[in-house]
């Protein structure tokens, strides 16, 4: 019994999971597959994850023993759903369990495919992504397909319309197109958390390649998203792809030539694209933390409890980015601080020393009340940094106004000469004879 | 091939719409060779274990790649393992396997020692794995050194003891006290039994071998099937389908090699197994890679039936490039097949199943490239997607028992070509269909027509598409897109009537759909098809629409997607505008006025002096004089207090001092004033 207790107390701290700045390296990933053969046919993708230190736990999606949590604690940090056809997960996993998993800040990768099951579609809809409702629809593109001797129906798409974001796709430019074969989706335009990472070309459309079109397809042109990511407000990240085969070794190794282009690339960009994207999804990039938020009057070191209007204050914060193994200083030139009461009174871009330290100085406005120092840093692909620190601002005290106003000297002078005159008058009046 | 699963899935999907899309399986090619060199990389000159070393060496041997130089390190550990008397059968087994490839010098005595030890293990073992490794090792010793006596005296007994683990459905148990039966174990058992047969000093009971044959064919009853013809063995626990199938294939081929009688198994099952291994593509881990390559090598040289794979290097044929239809028949590892004829049995368009467009014919054979080819596609083959049905016929009728060709093979082929676009024109029509403006379009080049129309008019776009053979071509994708200035898009499918593609947009019926948005609309036409080499997406021009005002209940245009790049940019800076301080006169003006203010005091003093003031009334006696003096000092102190109040004191201190001074002043003031009053009254009365 004692042993068990000791084990529990020792192991419990390690069972908490989602990405947290306190222990950012706990990375256990549950991979749910339709078929264990995917483990081998998609091994390059899994290998890139394993080489980065992730522990992958492969399970069949209908395995009755799977579960995301045990005794109320999540046993995994992330979930990869490579099971597009699964109608029901085994064990205790269902739609609600997966949504809870994401709601508690865990990461998710979903690969759907043609004939994706309703369950996978529902999970995607909850993430703000709508797959084409036609189960046999595929993304077809008769202009930017990948030239192939054996695939003639133009459903193997070579897309190079990437999101322009170094944080999501890495700083190295992706030269070759990405191969994609599968189902397209759209993102809800009112959902600001979803981003299209890989879009289809304007000539693409989503339809069943084998049947004649009578009405315009629902998904068409660049509105089709092939791969999207979601960053929830709790910084959980979700990757949704309409193609499972784009993760496969075959696509990773395949050479690619986009139709109408003379460039033949020896290797498709799938490996680079998905590796970089998975780094982002698993918080190896673009996860910021802000520490050492300080503010004080110029030439003072301590943080006061209250400021007076017109005080000159200095504000500083340190921002770091997680780089898979360590926190590195975050370098940017667009971090802004607001001095805020109902609306920003001052909004200033912080200067930086390029080592993660951001600072600025400004004068407190001549309005008193309860203000906040606010840093609302929302950048494409980065976790949002939202800091606020409340601080009251008071007006001048009665003795803090100017005592000697030159313009008032005539009045003072009048009073004092009057007083002098009065003194002399009293003496003269009393003792004159 | 993509994943097995995906392949199956796609086939399932497509099977609903058109049946029989056959997957083309490609034999092992250079992509496997480069992948093998990448996968099997020895760390610091040696592999982690002898098992891994064997898998790498065996794969390299099969693929014909130069072995990496691991001879030294692996050879040493082989000799180590063989020399040690405590090596487990499994270690010995892999050491001998590696040695069979590396061919190290091993003493006869070492072999003899191992052989006698293993024989003891075989006789006493109850676990299938122990027997498997021991028998396997003995077979390897037999192959490596002819002088060592490895023959089993009691082969029949051993055979029976292994056979006793078999189950009624053809599967095997790992040991007598383990009730679970396994297909993987069946493969191991059959391979071990094959070893026993080859090691037997006397003939094995033929009845036993007959029983084993029945077991093997029973195993094929539980085989699983993919829709593309691939078959495999599945194991619910522990082993993946690949390793299970590989184990069965190894056992099967080993057994077929040692029995004198032929093992009768359906050829399409063997071909299905080959398809299964080929369909995996290039596996990403060493174990799977080895299992795939090793099993294919077993199938390549097995005695049951050798599968022949029909593959097409290209299934997309271009009419403009005059591509030839080429077919290659090879064994699974890509080596050339025995002399065969490939017959094109039929070819039909995917849409209609009946009419064959190409008469049944034999393909010509090019000895150099080893391709069977159709010289030129017949004249009546137009662009489109077709199903070609091939049959492989072996020249030598004796070969029919050796090779499995799988009967008819159906392959989907796309024939692509350039489609002509003619008579393209765009027109604005009046409501009575009379033409208001009409413009010709050149859809092969750039267009920039500019039209204008109101809601009572119509827009007509028409063009013709013809295939190289002059038939009407109906592409899959013919979309006309109208984009309003505000990026609201409307898409129409252009239909065809007979030869002509035509769309008439009647704006009167469309005003609601257009959200009553007047203004300039960009026109864009997309025509595309899988077999159309000149698919295009082209801006045609624009049309200025004059639509009526929107009624109140009209639907609003949908919200547009926000550009994420703009949404996340930094905000404009805000700086607080401080209250402007009151305007004050300049200092010197104030000082000048201060100077002026001194003038009345000076005038007062001068006046006093002029009047000749004196202080003769000051009391002369000591006590009143003191009070008088104190009174004036007090007054001066009060006035000084006022100066101090200005300079530094606050109101409370000032009032406190003023109170004290006030009492003092009251007292001394009263004394001096009453004194002065009494003196003046005395003076008056006097």
UniProtKB/TrEMBL annotation, chain A:
It holds the Pfam family OST48_MD. GO terms for biological process: protein N-linked glycosylation via asparagine. It is a single-pass type I membrane protein. Residues 1-18 form the signal peptide. Residues 28-281 form the OST48 N-terminal domain. Keywords: Endoplasmic reticulum, Membrane, Signal, Transmembrane, Transmembrane helix. InterPro entries: DDOST_48_kDa_subunit, OST48_MD, OST48_N. Its main location: endoplasmic reticulum. Residues 295-432 form the OST48 middle domain. The chain crosses the membrane at residues 409-431. GO terms for cellular component: oligosaccharyltransferase complex. It is found in: Endoplasmic reticulum membrane; Membrane. Pathway: Protein modification; protein glycosylation. Component of the oligosaccharyltransferase (OST) complex. Belongs to the DDOST 48 kDa subunit family. Subunit of the oligosaccharyl transferase (OST) complex that catalyzes the initial transfer of a defined glycan (Glc(3)Man(9)GlcNAc(2) in eukaryotes) from the lipid carrier dolichol-pyrophosphate to an asparagine residue within an Asn-X-Ser/Thr consensus motif in nascent polypeptide chains, the first step in protein N-glycosylation. N-glycosylation occurs cotranslationally and the complex associates with the Sec61 complex at the channel-forming translocon complex that mediates protein translocation across the endoplasmic reticulum (ER). This is Dolichyl-diphosphooligosaccharide--protein glycosyltransferase 48 kDa subunit.
From TrEMBL, chain B:
The chain crosses the membrane at residues 589-613, 625-645, 657-674. Pfam families: Ribophorin_II (PF05817), Ribophorin_II_2nd (PF23861), Ribophorin_II_3rd (PF23860), Ribophorin_II_C (PF25147). It is found in: Endoplasmic reticulum membrane. It is a multi-pass membrane protein. This is Dolichyl-diphosphooligosaccharide--protein glycosyltransferase subunit 2. The keyword Signal applies. Residues 308-415 form the Ribophorin II second domain. It comes from the Eukaryota. Its main location: endoplasmic reticulum. One of its GO terms (biological process) is protein N-linked glycosylation. It comes from Rubus argutus (Southern blackberry).
